Amino acid sequence: MYEKLVGITSSENVLVNEPLKNHTYTRLGGNADFFVTPETYKQVQEIVQLANKEDIKFTLLGNGSNLIVKDGGIRGIVMNLNKLTSINTEGTKIIAQSGARIIDVSRLALKKTLTGLEFACGIPGSVGGALYMNAGAYGGEIKDVLESTIVVDPQGNLLTLAADKLDLEYRSSNIPANGYIVLEATFSLKEGNYQEIKAVMDDLTFKRESKQPLEYPSCGSVFKRPPGYFAGKLIQDSGLQGQQIGGAQVSLKHAGFIVNKDEATAQEYIDLIRHVQATVKEKFGVQLEREVRIIGEDLQK
């Protein structure tokens, strides 16, 4: 399999038994059998087609910002698109490849005095990940500005889809259900005023840095906002702030975050998430739904 993957891309782009903790914001996770970083859309298509032909497990890994990889790692091929990072403008549109950071797209929008992406200035994910979960913050979401996307389907075909074909809703889309791999997104923005756009972005950046526990590795906001409530307040009111299992801790700065405070394992992180869910359910009757994805295999004992 190694030789076939190298044949599609190159030896620099295929790593064997690669620790996935090197590629996740939580700094958690076991190893990937094959970690592949294609450089072109055609290479992505060919890797998907190879996985199908060889009947080998295939997993797409974004930039790892909203993700927990289990301690046993991931079998088969893990594809990462962090080498597809170009961002270009055409009038009031921005065309960004999926491996680009959505933060960098918002910064280019500012530079070109385009308004609409200010909300994304503090979202740590990639463009592909932002579409995958219809990422949002401070009243804005990808759904508001996305015009279209180029994806690869599970058979390796290249498709161009309008935004309204993605079922974009609160922190969800049909991208995972359809097995799509996002390669590129086109955002439709409006001409704005540089100082006004910058003022909004500066304000949102300050709010994020003052409220979020950026000093420790974390997966970002762990839970979706339950209707009529705020997840962080429910967790705080349950007396869980500062609660720790192993090296994983409910953040003292923002209860909606769980941080890797002291070399936590993925299992400790997951156990703490479940403990938070059970406690909030018991105290308030509210079922917290995870926003963070959990993938991979348990550590074999």
From TrEMBL:
Superkingdom of this protein's organism: Bacteria
Annotated GO biological process: cell division; cell wall organization; peptidoglycan biosynthetic process; regulation of cell shape
UniProt similarity note: Belongs to the MurB family.
Pathway(s) this gene product operates in, as recorded in its UniProt entry: Cell wall biogenesis; peptidoglycan biosynthesis
Localization: Cytoplasm
InterPro entries: FAD-bd_PCMH, FAD-bd_PCMH-like_sf, FAD-bd_PCMH_sub1, FAD-bd_PCMH_sub2, MurB, MurB_C, MurB_C_sf, Oxid_FAD_bind_N
Protein name: UDP-N-acetylenolpyruvoylglucosamine reductase
Gene of this entry: murB
